Here is the input.
Amino acid sequence: MPGDTLRLGLIGDNIRASRSPLLHRIAGEMLGIPTVYDSLIPAELGRDFDAVFADCATTRAGINVTYPYKEVAARKVTVDDPLVRGIGAVNTVLFAADRAKGHNTDFTGFKAAHARVRGAVAPGRVLMIGTGGVGRAVAFGLAGLGATALRLVDRDRAKAETLAAELRAAAPAMMVEVAGDAEAAARGCDGLINCTPLGMVGYPGTPLPRAAMAGAAWAFDAVYTPEDTQFLTDAAAEGLQIISGWELYFYQGVHASRLFTGRSLDEDALRARLRKD
Here is the structure.
């Protein structure tokens, strides 16, 4: 109802530097919807994810979910979109009286970010390091964008193998393989992607040395706090076209806002506000 406060939140670990609260508060202001958007860190609340999620189901209209809970959240919600069911991870949940419905705006957000920076150019051959929740969304996004081949690297090889099998079934035109060494797997790739936490606040480093980036055309890092990660700084120094995690942050937030409110935002105005604030 007009004037009612929209209560939202973000469940995740290590999210104190997240700018999602800012995005959704500004979005609410632009739409004339008073919005509360809280950072909910289970460890700081002294509760596990299940308890925090259950509390949100009775006190909030919806939530975003981030690392490391996206796959857990997918098992707690109804997912109408068969493609999102295939991804097996959700980052946006809407609560209704009878059920919780899950969505994945990382998937749509990555495709929008890629299009903004690279236009209609296809991804080509891609190396993706990290196959967790955001990695799964990005991998399915790459299939949707027409990537010809995808090499997956993860410390948990079984997780990468599972995703590879699911991608082969869902996108048979894209060649998918699992590799054990990121440096070797980077050879001959057009795109390089980091979907690990490495580089974010609290997790310094990069999953791929600069020397291994030579010859690639573009790079994307899902990390956006900070925006200029070592991974992207090294990629830029090697002449690669950069898609920053900020673009994914922006578009997944825009798409989540539309789900939360049922209304569209002036994206250019929101982008300008976020860049200023």
User: Anything to note?
Assistant: The mean pLDDT is 96. The first strand starts at residue 6 and ends at 11.
